[in-house]
Amino acid sequence: MRISDAIRAYAAHLADVRRLSPATVRAYRADLTDLARSCGDLDVADVDLETLREWLWTATKRGDARATIARRTASARGFFDWSVESGLRDADPSLRLVAPKRGRTLPHIATAGAMSTLLDEAGTAADEGDPLALRDAAILELLYGAALRVSELCGLDPDAVDHDRRTVRVLGKGSKERIVPFGAPAGRALDAYLVRGRPTLLARGAGAVPHPALFLGARGGRIGPRAVYDIVARTVGPAVGAGAVGPHALRHSAATHLIDGGADLRAVQELLGHASLGTTQIYTHVSAEKLTASYRLAHPRA
């Protein structure tokens, strides 16, 4: 079987059997499609260790980040492990691949004061009644107030929000569902958007046919990650003081501010939907950097 055909079967296996998210399946498929292109779409049984090493070396020479090379290595390992299990080949050529160590970079965060200011500004803009401004304010409040991933926010339907308890039901990575609380400011922004913003956006799209999405685009369809990224980059970027800032900056900021405020690490892990506590611990590193900076400025023996 050609690699391209095997990739399609493997993608179906990831989606239907392992129940991975569409975004994860797309990432694996993109890596493996690049492998197929690199080696001329060989038969799966003809791919050897040197072919894989050459593929990764080409990516390295191209300037791909270590994290990207590590992810590609993981994609190849998963694919060829499945190929052996499926009987497409006898041995796994990826077993001796060595992935580069990922460099752990601290996330961009905004200070609590900066977040408060930019959210207040978004609320003031929403007071004018423009449906897009109402939507944007609700998006920013919920991304920060509930520390959501952008995919989780874009996938929300109106019935996922419990306005009385101020919680939202989200579908996270691996199709794992969790209930996340949000605060009163996010609740007010959501209510304003649902009453004064969403109906106007809905009328631009399906008309009399209700659209299931909570957050709608300018044309009335479900909003996409790219549009949310643009909203965040426009409003949060200056506060963070960085170039390309996406929705994850709000999630990072929320988690860091929770830990700075004394929240239990396992509670933050549950809120964020992390499978491993080790993933959540990066936010303690962020706080440690802040502590170290304060120490160096203030301690006489620093």
Automatic annotation (TrEMBL):
Cellular localisation: Cytoplasm
SUPFAM superfamilies the record matches: DNA breaking-rejoining enzymes (SSF56349)
Chain ranges of the Tyr recombinase domain: 105-296
InterPro entries membership: CB, DNA_brk_join_enz, Integrase-like_cat_sf, Integrase_catalytic, Integrase_recombinase_N, Integrase_SAM-like_N, Tyrosine_recombinase_XerC/XerD, Tyrosine_recombinase_XerCD
Residue intervals of the Core-binding (CB) domain: 1-84
Any GO BP annotation: DNA transposition
Pfam families with a match to the protein in the record: Phage_int_SAM_1 (PF02899), Phage_integrase (PF00589)
Active-site residue numbers: R149, K173, H248, R251, H274, Y283
GO CC terms in record: cytoplasm
Main location: cytoplasm
Assigned keywords, A-Z: Cell cycle, Cell division, Chromosome partition, Cytoplasm, DNA integration, DNA recombination, DNA-binding
Gene Ontology terms, MF aspect: DNA binding; tyrosine-based site-specific recombinase activity
Described function: Site-specific tyrosine recombinase, which acts by catalyzing the cutting and rejoining of the recombining DNA molecules. The XerC-XerD complex is essential to convert dimers of the bacterial chromosome into monomers to permit their segregation at cell division. It also contributes to the segregational stability of plasmids.
HAMAP family: Recomb_XerC_XerD (MF_01808)
Name of this protein: Tyrosine recombinase XerC
Organism: uncultured Microbacterium sp
This protein's encoding gene: xerC
